[in-house]
Amino acid sequence: MSFRPCWRCFLRASDLSTSIWQPSPARLSASAAPFSTSTSSLTNASADRSTAFRAKVFNLKKEKPKNDVRAKRPAPGERKAYRKRIILSNTNALPIYGMEDFTVENMCKQESKGMVLGIPGNNVDQLRAVEAFKPTQAWGMFRRPGMLVRNETVEYAKLLEELQSQGKSLRRVLVGERGSGKSVMVLQAMTMAFLKGWTVINIPEAQELIIGHYDYAPLSGSSPLLFIQKSYTARLLSQISRSNPQLETLRLSSTPPSNFPIPIPANISLARLAGLGASDPEIAWPVFQLLISELTLPNSSIAADDQKRPPLLFTLDSLANAMKDQTAYMTASFKPIHAHDLTLLKTFMDYLSGASPLPNGGLILAATSASNPPPNPSLDLALAKLETHSASQSSAPSPDPYNPSPATPNPFYTYDQRVMDIFEGPNGGQVEVQRLPGLSKEEAKGLMEYWAKSGILRQDVDERLVGEKWSLSGGGIVGELERGCIRMRI
Amino acid sequence: MATKLSGALPYRLLKRCPHCDSHVPRRSQISLSRQRRQKLSTSQGKLAVAAPEIDLSTIELKPPNPTHARIVPASPSYFTGRPLYIDNLLSLQSLLRKYQTLPTVEPGLAPRVAWKTVSQYRLVVGEPVRPSKYTFVLRILKRLNQIHPELVPPELQDELQIYKRDVDPFANRPTPGVIDEFGRSYGVGRRKSSSAKVYLVQGTGEVLINGKSITTVFGRIHDRESALWALKATGRIDKYNVWALVTGGGTTGQAEAITLGAAKALMVHEPALKPALRRAGCITRDPRRVERKKPGHVKARKMPTWVKR
User: Fold this and answer.
1) What is the nearest CA distance from A368 to chain B, expressed in angstroms?
2) In a shared domain, residues A419 and A479
3) Given A309, A328, A398, B306, which residue has the most CB atoms within 10 angstroms?
């Protein structure tokens, strides 16, 4: 018997009768390429015959590693977290000794105008819980969060005082140029409300509610059909329970409706109730409804031993998004849902239009956004009408036929009646429109001195610098002032 | 002889001597030289006298025969290459000689005059005057122009008028800006294809451009700074309110057009700021425009990519 070598595998076939030439499939898979250095598991993996053959080709060139990613890829959600993170302190900034805190007393003083006051620590936590701070604002540049007391701040402090003492309610929309401080004005109102023990509910960005990032479901039994956003409502309830400590002392005084999904103890605290809803999105919407109705119960109908309901501050930012007639959500018949058919926004709009009363007083505050808002001619027209109406009460405007006022309807536009009704409906006449102007030069000087003391603005703050920066920022538009002084430094 | 024959001389030659006052007739020159020669000869005549002196009075002169008349040019420069130019130069030189003692003004304070260029002068005299030769004329003209304006004699004024350009570019002065009844001054500025009308009024530093705030019109801080650069460079940003209308072009052009307009309007309020504004670069209009596209090019200068075949 000759020893004939196998020329493919250089093995000496000791016995041709062995099963090399009649392999079983299992055997083949194990020793299909005896000369290959690749492991048999890899050859198994390549089901394609041509690639299996190619693996056997002797290649002098060094093969490129397939996954040539040296940097670590960010984990899912890490980038968004980075984008949305709120930094409220900077240890490199100089601390300002003698900086006063925002208090109930000094916020309505005329002497505080033009001063930068610090936000008290527990209020910072509350404001953080209600997402009042925005990533675009410059909190992260300073040692601790502080706010400029501007003319309107003092006005708001007095307004809140008046609303609380007289039990009145007010609905207001903030308008103004981009960077004029509308969102910070809402934040200041929230700070004051927290200091005064009000209940604060904040929808930090209406856009989040309409772009289809949260789950939604039709609300059974509603006519016309409404849609609830369970997880967002749960988030909102968590936000309310974390930020409003006074809810611990408030007790449920009415019996929940018969179709309430879970049994709840009769004397449950409102904080506990909100916590229940926050932990379970399935029951979030009925809990939110119950909570809101509890918070707006007239104090006269509450038992004497119960805590009185404090006034309510309900705020919403980026109003134009909340007025869209077409959201990213679709009905079962694949029609876009109107923003006012989403229950959370509907709740806010009912308060804004005055359809839902605030018997214990309070403030409904909506801020428009001038940074890339969706075009909304209905909202623009309604706000312009209200603004000119309030302006005409002070001084009669001269009609100019060549320059029609924005308060005149454009015949080429279609207006959304649902939006117009909020401001023009039976209860809508009393919505106030407040235009935020730029800072005065004194306020600008106070703010720039604060920046200089923090070590961020490295120039002498004198009349000349203040005047120059004030003019360059379009007459004291805070955002532009900040951009010109502390952001775009060379 | 020239005076005697003047009636018979052709018009062209007569015109050749516009300034006969300073001109010595040829005949007298000849006769003078003859006398001098005779004097010379008499002084030497003691040694050798060829003939006694001719007493012309005794010679009976025949009436001149007009056919024997020789045409003598009116100008002594007739036989030079550029007789009119030489005449002019001589006339100017004599004027300078005549009036050189008159008081002059400081070199920078003489009235600005645009003298004729050499080509314009050539058209007047009809002679191919070289530029280097014309500079002699110009040099005298500039010296004569230095004479105190109140003491310039009319004769000199008439003479200088010949050499002045027909259209005086220095007479075309911009109308000085005025502050109107509302306290506004006005200036126009241009840059690239933008044009800005700027009104300045004393105020607190408010700015409105096309009825909008400066932050709305110019998103870039750089553009805002360049729009208000005239005021910023002079430290007047919080002293005036700006109201501007700007059209055409893009943001950079519009911002820099406002710079020039604001500088002009500011100079109406404070003319003394002109040197400071010039140092800040707010006076001179930047004449650059988009360069035109040329045939054969992809853009103004870019050539198409070279392709083999």
Assistant:
1) 17
2) no
3) A309
What amino acid occupies position B201? V
> Closest-CA residue in chain B for A177?
B216
With a cut of 80, say whether residue B221 has pLDDT above it: yes
Q: Is residue A293 part of a domain?
A: yes
Q: Tell me the pLDDT of chain B averaged across its residues.
A: 86
Q: Let me know if residue A390 belongs to a domain.
A: yes
Task: Using CA coordinates, name the residue in chain B closest to A482.
Answer: B221
For residue A325, give the 3-state DSSP assignment.
coil
Q: B282-294 pLDDT, tens per residue?
A: 999 999 999 999 9
Q: Are B18 and B87 in contact (CB under 8 A)?
A: yes
Cα(B98)–Cα(B100) distance, integer angstroms: 6
The percentage of residues in chain B with a pLDDT greater than 70, rounded to a whole number, is 85
pTM, full prediction? 0.75
What's the rounded Cα separation, in Å, for the pair A327 and A213?
A: 11
Q: At B165, list the tokens.
A: 């350009």
DSSP for B47-85, please give it: T---SPPP-TTTS-PPPPPGGG-----SSGGGGSSSHHH
How many angstroms from the chain centroid is the CA of residue B163?
Answer: 9
Is residue A173 situated within a structural domain? yes
- Residues from chain A that touch B213, judged by Cβ atoms under 8 A, are 177, 474-475, 477
Residue B167 CA to residue B171 CA, distance in Å, equals 8
Q: What is the pLDDT of residue B70?
A: 83
Count how many pairs of residues, chain A against chain B, have C-beta atoms within 8 Å.
48
Whether A460 and A318 map to the same domain: the answer is no
Span B8-15, mean pLDDT?
Answer: 44
Q: Of A428-437, B103-112, B128-137, where does mean pLDDT reach its minimum?
A: A428-437
Q: Which helix (H) or strand (E) holds B40?
A: helix B26-45
Give the count of domains, chain A: 2
Structural domain includes residue A8: no
Across the interface, whether the CB atoms of A467 and B205 are under 8 A apart is answered yes
Domain hosting residue A284, numbered range: 97-111+118-136+152-435
Strands (E), A340-462: 362-367, 432-436
Q: How far is A462 from chain B (nearest CA, A)?
A: 12
**Pair A212, A286 in one domain:** yes
Whether residues A398 and A299 fall in one domain: yes
Is B207 in contact with A475 (Cβ distance < 8 A)? yes
Q: Which of A380, A337, A347 is nearest to A203 (CA)?
A: A347
Record: contact A474-B207, CB cut-off 8 A: yes
**What dihedral do alpha carbons A135, A137, A139, A142 form, nearest 10°?**
130
Amino acid, single-letter form, for residue A198: W
**Is the Cβ pair B214, A471 closer than 8 Å?**
yes
Q: Identity (one letter) of the amino acid at A53?
A: F
CB hemisphere CA count around A117 (13 angstroms): 24
Neighbouring C-alpha atoms within 13 Å toward the C-beta of B162: 19
Closest residue by Cα to residue A404 from A412, A416, A394:
A412
Check whether residue A183 and residue A245 sit in a common domain: yes
| Domain co-membership, A299 together with A205 | yes
Find the chain A residues whose C-beta atoms sit closer than 8 A to any C-beta of B. Answer: 177-179, 441, 463-464, 467-468, 470-475, 477, 480, 483-484, 488
Rounded Cα gap, residues A237 and B300, in angstroms: 64
A403 → chain B, closest CA residue = B211
Q: How close does chain A come to B305, measured CA to CA in Å? A: 36
Query: What value of ipTM does the predicted structure carry?
Result: 0.77
- Asked if A428 and A472 sit in the same domain, the reply is no
- Give the Cβ contact number of residue A293 at 10 Å: 13
If asked whether residues A243 and A358 sit together in one domain, one would say: yes
Residue A487 DSSP symbol: I
Contact A473 B238 (CB under 8 A): no
What would the two tokens of residue A210 be?
């309409």
Distance separating alpha carbons of residues A6 and A28, to the nearest angstrom? 16
DSSP state of A282: G
Chain B nearest-CA residue for A480: B215
One-letter amino acid for residue A176 of the chain: G
